[in-house]
Amino acid sequence: MIKTLALPSKPSRLFGPNIEGLKRGKGYRVKMELSIAQPDDWHLHLRDGELLQTVVSHSAKQFGRAIIMPNLKPPVTTTTAAVAYYDSILKALPDNTDFTPLMTLYLTDKTTPQEIKLARESGVVYAVKLYPAGATTNSQDGVTDLFGKCVPALEEMINQNIPLLVHGEVTDPKVDIFDRERVFIETVLKPLIQKFPKLKVVMEHVTTMDAIKFVESCEEGSVAATVTPQHLLLNRNSLFQGGLQPHNYCLPVLKRETHRQAIVSAVTSGNKRFFLGTDSAPHERRTKESSCGCAGVFNAPVALSIYAKVFEEAGALDKLEAFTSFNGPDFYGLPRNTRKITLKKTPWKVPESYSYASGSIVPMSAGESLEWLPTFP
């Protein structure tokens, strides 16, 4: 629900509203509030140790649930490890926080059908993540033979109705980094859907019009996609303007403006196949600003503000709630959140960084002013 209020731009000496001024819009500023069902984050990196302790509160205070990525060191390849990680997250949560981590398993060439059954029976594992070996952060233990060694696990995932979450990039060094998603769709994802038409698949953090067209061509409810704040707001120029910008570097890498526009168009159209997944991926500042900077954007503190900005600029604020709060749980077969949050259009400044014992983390849009501020009951 969008609520628009007219407030005097200066304090009035009158006890009542100036109706004529309100009608003419003279001397008044417009204050907008947007009430939506509490969102969920369907793609989140919380890390572990000190980083977990530092970043978890940013997601927990605004999202009801989050799909937690398993690419730790070592990766979360077993249900036992997933349950242990689940417990660590709960212990790191602030008091009086109603936040549920939804765990994932890290798919490998050795993942067994029995492990998939255990995952379903655990009550805490909701998906399995496919990382092509070497595709992104801590993916060196990922899949090398999807259509050979992983078939028994994929078949059991269909039996257990567990979605496969896909990092959609090939890792062949001969393929241009800006083409890795497109090539993955043609050589891996299309054959995967053809071979396993009953497998539920989420193409994570889509970045190209090729991915948009592919997801839109698939049956609704069987293939979906998450979309990040950075891929909605930024294009690849943002990596180089004013010098190299390491805090805008992520994988999949930012693409051309034409691709960004295609993603915005799809997301703001109301298409149920697309939903919120921040891919918030914190790294300590020194590892981002180094000779070999890590890939990942820490966007948890600003994600909802940026999503609202993009939808407002597209004239689609009425479709924001479905994207943030309905499409994800509907795809996963989970109930929608009943708690409400409010987004107020009021300027606020993003901190330059967030400090913790071992260093600091730089958020997306650091030092900038954003216009939508989430508030919570």
Can you characterise this structure?
By secondary structure, the protein is α/β, with parallel strands linked by helices. The protein has one domain (39-336): Metal-dependent hydrolases (TIM Barrel), CATH 3.20.20. Helices cover 32% and strands 20% of the residues. The chain has helices at residues 19-24, 49-60, 79-92, 113-122, 151-160, 180-195, 209-217, 229-233, 257-267, 285-288, 303-313, 320-332; strands at 2-8, 28-37, 41-44, 65-68, 100-106, 125-130, 164-166, 201-203, 223-227, 274-276, 340-349, 354-356, 359-361, 369-375. The strands form three sheets. It has an eight-stranded parallel β-sheet with strand order 3-4-5-6-7-8-9-10. A four-stranded antiparallel β-sheet has the order 1-2-11-14. It has a two-stranded antiparallel sheet with strand order 12-13. The chain is globular. Residues 6-28 have low confidence and may be disordered.
How are the SSEs placed, and which strands pair?
Elements (H helix, E strand, L loop, with lengths): L1 E7 L10 H6 L3 E10 L3 E4 L4 H12 L4 E4 L10 H14 L7 E7 L6 H10 L2 E6 L20 H10 L3 E3 L13 H16 L5 E3 L5 H9 L5 E5 L1 H5 L23 H11 L6 E3 L8 H4 L14 H11 L6 H13 L7 E10 L4 E3 L2 E3 L7 E7 L2
Parallel strand pairs: 3-4, 4-5, 5-6, 6-7, 7-8, 8-9, 9-10
Antiparallel strand pairs: 1-2, 2-11, 11-14, 12-13
Helix pairs in contact: 4-5
